[in-house]
Structure formats: C-alpha cells, structure tokens
Amino acid sequence: MSNPISDLVLGFQGLVADVPDLVQPLIVALAGAVPFIEGEGAAAIGIIGGINPLVAAVAGAVGNLICVAIVVLATSRVRTAVTTRRGAPEKPVTARRQKFERAYHRYGTPGVSLLGPLLLPTQFTAAALTSTGVSPARVIAWQAAAIALWTTVITLIIAGVIRFAA
Fold this sequence. Notes:
Blueprint: H1 4-18, H2 24-32, H3 38-48, H4 53-84, H5 95-115, H6 122-131, H7 136-165
C-alpha cells in the first residue's frame, strides 16, 4: 500500500527533474505550499533534484509562506464574520481545541509557531492561532520565522549529508 505523502514527494521530485532549470524553483515553491511537505520538505526535494541548496530553500520557504498567508487571511475573515454575527450559538469546546489552547497559553504565539511544525503543518497551526483571535500580522510574522528556521535547518542537514556522502 502506498503512502499519499511519499507519492506526492516522489511526484514532485520527478517533476523537478523533468522541467527546465528555470521552472524548477517554481515546482519547489508549489511543493512548499503543500501541508506536511512544507518549506523544509520542498527544499529537500529541490536539493535532491539537483537545485542549488540556497535556491531550493528560498523557493520552498516562499511557497510555504504564501500558502500560510492565504490561510491566515482567509481564517481571519471567517473569524470576523462568525464573531460579528449576533446570536450565534456557542459550539462546545473539543478536546483538540482545549489541547491547542493549553499549548498556546503555555508557549504563546512564538512558541506555538516555532514548535508547531514538529507536530502539525504550518497551515494548520496558523489557522488555529488566527481562529483564537491572534492578529493576522503577528501570526504571519511568527510563521515566517518558523518557516525560515525549519527550512534552514533541514537545508543545512540535507546539503551536509549530500556533501559528506559525495
């Protein structure tokens, strides 16, 4: 049985290898927009596909950040529409929501943003933060920091492993 994420990664790697060099960063950016692949996974796809590590990292991070920004702005609009609607019944708080809120109160926006990618895609974390009322600008700024951090770390590891193995 195949894993959909690994199939998607292999598909992106094949696509990177099949397109002209100038188009390769766009493919890496598209991969970065996919939850669970993220900027760091996209950078790895690009590096393994033969793209310069810096170009792969920037393309993956930009693709991830653009997607996160769209999610944040959309979630913010939905939250505004829901909270301004009068007489809307309160939904019961789910166990998952309680867990997120405990983490948020413990670590704040910076902690949830920087540690969140260890557990969830940045798009999910960004939507959760925005839905709790954190300002979109603050969410985007901290998600950008997290994307840059994790993409850089993974890029350095992958590039180092490839250099060491070569």
